[in-house]
Every structure is written in structure tokens, then in C-alpha cells.
Specification:
Layout (H helix, E strand, L loop, with lengths): L5 H8 L30 H13 L6 H15 L19 H18 L1 H12 L3 E5 L8 H22 L5 H30 L3 H12 L5 H19 L9 H4 L1 H9 L4 H18 L6 E5 L11 H13 L5 E6 L5 H12 L5 E5 H10 L4 H5 L2 E3 L3 E3 L8 E6 L2 H7 L24 H26 L3 H4 L3 H6 L1 H6 L13 E6 L1 H17 L5 H9 L6 H9 L9 H18 L12 E4 L5 H4 L32 H8 L12 E6 L6 H17 L4 E6 L2 H9 L8 E3 L4 E3 L5 H12 L3
Length: about 750
């Protein structure tokens, strides 16, 4: 079924990009200028220059107000378009203009001017592949219930009511509310601008919807979609804070869906509107994908899944798209029929779906002290992370390399690639008498890295709201407007941080090799192993292959490597979880095992490892086996991963599963997929995403990319086209597919 006209499709797909730019790019979108009438506003560079010149006149004013005024300037002056070929407007002339101007300026002033020693330490961690750390403006979710219930005007009015309720309001609180007032009045003014433009272009349905959104919350399914889209565009692409979920879609949109049907709007019209909504995010083509989630439980534990959930998947499936990416909360009450529908989409090549264990994440949150209700309604954010509504749990992204402490132990506290001293001295390698002594020293070095990351992050997070105050987000969070404090400045309901630990399989396999071949079999000494690694296995290829082919590999349900992984995970939870963030934010630390692109980014800084990996080679992903090492099949991978208790921490513990097309054919194949997923979830697994591929197809796609333009691959929390990943990444997936045979 075709939902979108060809002319409309072509217009929308060029709406966010220059004609020559690939849609699946790391770069943020570049506006295709030709769609804008120059009479509607200023060109991109004029906007940038205007922000800078106007801000020079406001240097005595607080940052929340200065940023809000810059936001207002953009919405008054940016070019717009409301073409009849689209039911969603074209909004900003240049992407993230505030980040390009005042936010980057304030960041430089804070990091290089106020905390240069902290910035020096942060750069040291990043440049040596120890930990990739940066201020996180990438994982926010507004309280969508309030956005849909109140609309833009209602959020503004609620903020003003809260301002009046605060006795002896401070100057800082007053500036906070002024920032929200200026921001939301600018949004309402902007909606009126769009409405006038829509009328000029005879896009009357859009004009009517925009008019309603200036004075009210959404009343129809289309208006709710429009509100969601406008909030996303203004927050992520102008305000400069990523919106890492488009909502619990089937829960938030169901009332609008039912009202439309009751008011005589056809299901076909709803499907068409949804298709145009999806296509916006396909066209933006953000490399990481735009998240939206389905499912979960109602208060009585019955399923959230409803007829809109099925319609959502059906439209998505028929469109053949891979963005937005879809997360599904799977609970005991989730209908099997719905799960099978999603699994069938995956086995037919739509890999942009990840399954989340509802019971697992709820137990994890409740163990941390959150209420049953907070845990039940928690948001799925980003790739598969989760947090209670109204939280800001990610002041910094911290990707810690679990292999670097091993280098320090083998080199008396020095880096195995650059030779830099880590800051903690370790004994000479010949002084270790037992594996337990060696493992304890590894933990000592690992703890030192953890402490460095926490100290660096706690030191800079107090400047987050100064660098990039968040009026749009804060207005949606009740605790922010009750306190009169920015979400980045302790105003959110929780104000934690999360540390991500990468390459669990590589470290578990490496320590397994050391235990077996150095301490148990005494095949070689630690100093000999260290020298072999320093020489990148040159002249020792047979030994490298022996280490690689050893049967004791994490991800294969082998006791030794799995027990090491569990011991490391338990050590991490004991030494990270519940540690305090800065006093300003007053939150707690937590952890997860998501690696994003660090498997490639940190690899050049990571020495050869005892599991046979060469210096610079790809590192393992999430809680999955090293690429090509899951030789005992999907069930063994599930059993290994779920030995790590994902309820002990409140972030991600994702398994990347590869299956052969021949294994998932027919009814039996679909039931097999369902059985694997249910086994994973019943063992308290957190998140699973699935690739269905065979090595021959991937090799053919690598050789003749034009014939496989639509081939999708699930990477590490997001979905991409096969042709848009590097050959190094493609080779890794081919190796993974080869072991499935």
C-alpha cells in the first residue's frame, strides 16, 4: 500500500539535506536552501551573525535569558516553508545555530577558562583511549504526557503559575522562569508565522492545525503528530538538546487515534498521516536513528499494546524504512501475536527494532528506590537506555575501555600503546604468583580509571546549565518548575550520571587466556606474553590463532570466561552504582555496557590483547561475544549474557544476536525466534536486537553495493544501510555471519 505520493516523497527527502549529501551521514543535516522562499527570513549565515552580534549586547544578562533571546531571534528570522506536498513544515534554515555560536563559546569559557586542569585530564582520557568523555546534551526526553496534555501555551502558563507560587524568589529562579517565558512565547509566535505561511501556500490543513496549537493542546491524531514533530525540531535542531524518544507512542497517541475514529476520520487517513510523520525522520537521516517506543504495562499490568500498536508496525513495515528506530517494551502481558509481527519484520530485513525486558528494567529501577509507578512508566531513551520520566540521568557520556587497565598491569602502570603513565604503579609482571593476584591488580587499575572519570565528570557537570541551559525541556518537568531550577542544574526528578563500560567479551577472553596459558598451563610467562602483545603478535601467528580458537570464549556459555565477566560486572556495580554526582546536581552514578561506536573509535588506542585481537582491530560490542567468536549459537549467547544480573544497574545490557535466514524460515523459524527472545527475557535480559543475515549475501552486497541499496544492518543501538558503513565494519559482520554456519 502506497501512503505517500511520489512528488511529496521527493520533496520531503530533499527537505533536510543538500542534494549531494548522503542521508545516513554522521554530519547533522544541511538544509536544502532551494525549498525556502528568501522573503520568509534570513539566510543561514545571516542568522549566525545575528546571534553573535545580538549576544554582544546582552553580556550582563544571565545565560538562560541570553539563550532564550537568541532562540527567539532565530524563530523570528529563520526562513520557513509550508509546502502543500507535506503536512509538516520546514522549520530552520541552519542546523543547531545556538550550538554553533553562544553554546560553543560558553563551553570554551567553562572548560578552558574555569577548569583547564579538568579539561586537560578529560583530553588525556580521550586521546589515550582510556575513556571517551564529553558533556552530554544527547539523551533527554521531555515529559511527553505534559506536552500532549498542555500544549505549548499550557506549559508556559504552568510555568508562570509556579513562578508565582515561589516565595522569596531568587534572581537565579527568576531568570530560569524568564528563560522559559521568552522561549515558549517565541514558540507560539513561530507557530503563528508558520500558520500564515501555510495559508499563503494553500496548505490549509496544516494552517488550521497550527492555529489550534497556538491556543490549545492537540485535539486530533494529526495535531498530536505535528506537536511532537515541532517540539523535536525546535528542541533538537535549534535549542540544541537531542530528543531521544518521540514518546511511548501507542500509550500517548491512543486517545487521539480513538477520538479521530469516533469523529469520522478514517483509519486510512491516520495511516497516511503516520507515514508522513515517519518520513520526516527517514529524511533527516540522523546516523544514530531517532528513537520511539511501544508497549509496556498499564497500572493493572495489562498490556499497553493496542490496535494503534499494530497499525504503527504495519505502516512502518509497508514503508520499508529504517528510521525512526523502534523499541518495544516486552512484558508478560504483551500479546504473542504482536511480538511475532515484529519478529517477522526483522527476519524480512527490517532490523530497526530492539526488544526491551519490561520486568527487568522495572526491577532494576525499583532496586534503586524508584516507585512502582515510576518504574512502570519509565522512558526508553537513545539506543535502549531507560530512565524514569522527568529525569536527567546523563550529564556526561563516559565510555570506559575495559582493556586499558590490563595494559597498565602488564606495563607497571603504563599505557601499552603510547607508554604514558596511568597514575597508578603496578608491580613488575614477574612478581605475580597467582592469577588471583593479577586479577586483583587489574581491578585496582580499573578502579583508578573509574575514579578519574567520576572526578572529571563531577567537576565539569556543574557547568552544564551554564553552558547550555534548557528552557524547553525544563518546562515539561514538574520538579524543575516547582524548584525554579534548570533540568541540567539539579531541577530534574533525578540527576544521575551513567558510566558505560566497553569490550566485556574482549577483557573476559583475555583474562581467560592469561589464567589458562600463563598461570595454569604455564605455557609462557607474563613477561613473554607482554612482549608478544607489544610486538602485535609478529612472529607468533600460530600462538595468536591458538588463543583465538580456544574454546573458552565469552558468549558461548563457557564457565571460565563467563564467570570472569560476572566478577567484573559485580565489581563495577559495587564501585560505581550509587556514588554521588556533584553536590550541585545531587544525583547518583550508575552504569551500563553500551559501546556505541567506541568499538572502532577506541580500537586504534588499544594494544593487542591476549584473546588474539591485533592492535587497532575492532573491539567487542555491548555484552555480546567478540565478533566471530559466538560459535555455540544463539542460546549459548543468551545464557552467557544473562549471567550478568541486569537488575543491579539501571542502564543497558544489550545482546546483539545474529541469526541465519535459513534458521528463521516459516512458522517453525518464527517460533524459534520467539523462543529465543522469551528465553532471554525470562532470564532477566535487558535488551536484544537481532540481525538476520548470511555471509554470502553480505559478501555479495560488499562486492556489488548498487544491487543491495536497501540492505539494512543493526549496528550497536541503531540501524543503518549496509552501504553506509565502512569496509572494516562490513568485514566484522561478515565474520560474525561466517560462524553462524
Amino acid at each position: 500500500m502506497k501512503y505517500i505520493k511520489d512528488a511529496d516523497y521527493d520533496y520531503i527527502m530533499n527537505k533536510y539535506h543538500s542534494q549531494s549529501e548522503p542521508f545516513n551521514s554522521f554530519d547533522r543535516f544541511i538544509r536544502y536552501d532551494a525549498i525556502f522562499d528568501e522573503n520568509t527570513g534570513l539566510a543561514g549565515e545571516e542568522i549566525i551573525n545575528g546571534i553573535k552580534s545580538n549576544d554582544k549586547l546582552l553580556e550582563e544578562i544571565s545565560h538562560p535569558v541570553r539563550k532564550a533571546k537568541a532562540f527567539e531571534y532565530i524563530l523570528k528570522n529563520t526562513r520557513i516553508n509550508c509546502d502543500k506536498r507535506d503536512i509538516f513544515p520546514a522549520i530552520n534554515m541552519i542546523d543547531r545555530p545556538l550550538n554553533k555560536t553562544i553554546v560553543s563559546k560558553w563551553r570554551n569559557e567553562a572548560f578552558n577558562g574555569k577548569i583547564p586542569d579538568v579539561e586537560k585530564q578529560r583530553n588525556f582520557l580521550c586521546n589515550n583511549g582510556i575513556a571517551t568523555v564529553w558533556p552530554d546534551y544527547d539523551h533527554s526526553v521531555p515529559v511527553w504526557d505534559r506536552v500532549f496534555d498542555l500544549g505549548f501555551l499550557g506549559l508556559l502558563e504552568e510555568s508562570e503559575k509556579s513562578r508565582k507560587n515561589i516565595e522569596d524568589i531568587s534572581a537565579e529562579q527568576s531568570d530560569f522562569f524568564d528563560g522559559i517565558k521568552i522561549t515558549y512565547e517565541a514558540i507560539i509566535m513561530f507557530l503563528k508565522r508558520l500558520k500564515v505561511q501555510a495559508e499563503k501556500q494553500e496548505n490549509f490543513r496544516l494552517a488550521d492545525a497550527l492555529l489550534n496549537l497556538t491556543v490549545s493542546s492537540p485535539k486530533s491524531f494529526y495535531e498530536a503528530l505535528l506537536l511532537d514533530y515541532i517540539y523535536f525540531m525546535l528542541c533538537e535542531h535549534i535549542e540544541g538538546l537531542q530528543v531521544r524518544s518521540l514518546s511511548n507512542f501507542d500509550r500517548n497517541f491512543y486517545i487521539f487515534y480513538k477520538n479521530d475514529l469516533a469523529n469520522g476520520i478514517s483509519e486510512e487517513q491516520i495511516r497516511k498521516d503516520l507515514a508522513y510523520f515517519f518520513l520526516q525522520f527517514t529524511a533527516i537521516g540522523n546516523y544514530w536513528g531517532q528513537p520511539v517506543y511501544l508497549g509496556g504495562c498499564k497500572e493493572d499490568e495489562s498490556t499497553v499494546i493496542n490496535e494503534l500498536s499494530y497499525l504503527f508496525l504495519d505502516v512502518y513495515d509497508k514503508m520499508g524504512i529504517y528510521n525512526p528506530k523502534v523499541q518495544i517494551k516486552i512484558a508478560e502481558s504483551t500479546p504473542k501475536e504482536f511480538i511475532l509481527k515484529a519478529l517477522d519484520m526483522i527476519r524480512r530485513g527490517n532490523n530497526s527494532i530492539v526488544f526491551i525486558g519490561d520486568a527487568t528494567i522495572r526491577e532494576a529501577l525499583e532496586r534503586c528506590g524508584f516507585t512502582v509507578e515510576q518504574a512502570r512508566t519509565c522512558d526508553i531513551t537513545g539506543c535502549y537506555e531507560y530512565s524514569v520520566q522527568g529525569a536527567y540521568n546523563s550529564a556526561a557520556m563516559n565510555y570506559v575501555n575495559l582493556l586499558k587497565p590490563l595494559e597498565y598491569v602488564l606495563h607497571e602502570g603504563c599505557d601499552g600503546v603510547k607508554g604514558d603513565f596511568s597514575g597508578v604503579k603496578s608491580p613488575e609482571v614477574q612478581k605475580y604468583n597467582t592469577f588471583e593476584e593479577f586479577f586483583d591488580e587489574y581491578k585496582k587499575q580499573l578502579l583508578a580509571v573509574i575514579n578519574q572519570v567520576i572526578n572529571v565528570t563531577n567537576s565539569f557537570e556543574i557547568y552544564l546549565s551554564e553552558i547550555n541551559p534548557q528552557s524547553m525541556l525544563s518546562a515539561t518537568i514538574p520538579s524543575c518548575i516547582e524548584k525554579g531550577r534548570d533540568a541540567m542544574n539539579g531541577g530534574a526528578s533525578t540527576n544521575g550520571n551513567c558510566m558505560m563500560f566497553g569490550f566485556m567479551a574482549d577483557i573476559a577472553d583475555s583474562l581467560t587466556v592469561i589464567k589458562k596459558y600463563v598461570f595454569d598451563k604455564k605455557m609462557l610467562s607474563l613477561s613473554e606474553l607482554r612482549d608478544i602483545l607489544d610486538n602485535n603478535f609478529e612472529g607468533n601467528e600460530k600462538l595468536r590463532i591458538k588463543f583465538m580458537n580456544d574454546v573458552d570464549k565469552y558468549g558461548n556459555n563457557r564457565e571460565l570466561p563467563d564467570s570472569i565477566a560476572v566478577e567484573i560486572a559485580d565489581f563495577l556495580t559495587s564501585n560505581v552504582c550509587a556514588r554521588p554526582t556533584s553536590a550541585v546536581r545531587g544525583g547518583k552514578w550508575n552504569l551500563g555496557f553500551h559501546v556505541a561506536r567506541q568499538s572502532y573509535e577506541q580500537a586504534p588506542h588499544t594494544a593487542a590483547s591476549p584473546n588474539g585481537r591485533l592492535r587497532g582491530d575492532e573491539l567487542s560490542k555491548n555484552l555480546s561475544a567478540s565478533m566471530g567468536m559466538n560459535k555455540e549459537g544463539a542460546t549459548a549467547a543468551i545464557l552467557s549474557t544473562t549471567k550478568i544480573d541486569a537488575t543491579k544497574f539501571t542502564s543497558d545490557a544489550c545482546l546483539d544476536l545474529g541469526l541465519l535466514p535459513s534458521a528463521v524460515k516459516g512458522d517453525d523459524g518464527l517460533e524459534a525466534m520467539y523462543g529465543l527472545l522469551m528465553t532471554f527475557l525470562k532470564r532477566k535480559g535487558h535488551a536484544m536486537h537481532i540481525n538476520v543475515f548470511d555471509a554470502d549475501t553480505l559478501r555479495a552486497a560488499q562486492k556489488e553495493p548498487d544491487k543491495y541499496r536497501d540492505l539494512q544492518i543493526r549496528v550497536c543501538g541503531w540501524n543503518v544501510l549496509w552501504n553506509n558503513i565502512s569496509k572494516v565494519e562490513q568485514d566484522g559482520f561478515i565474520r560474525q555471519a561466517e560462524v553462524l554456519l
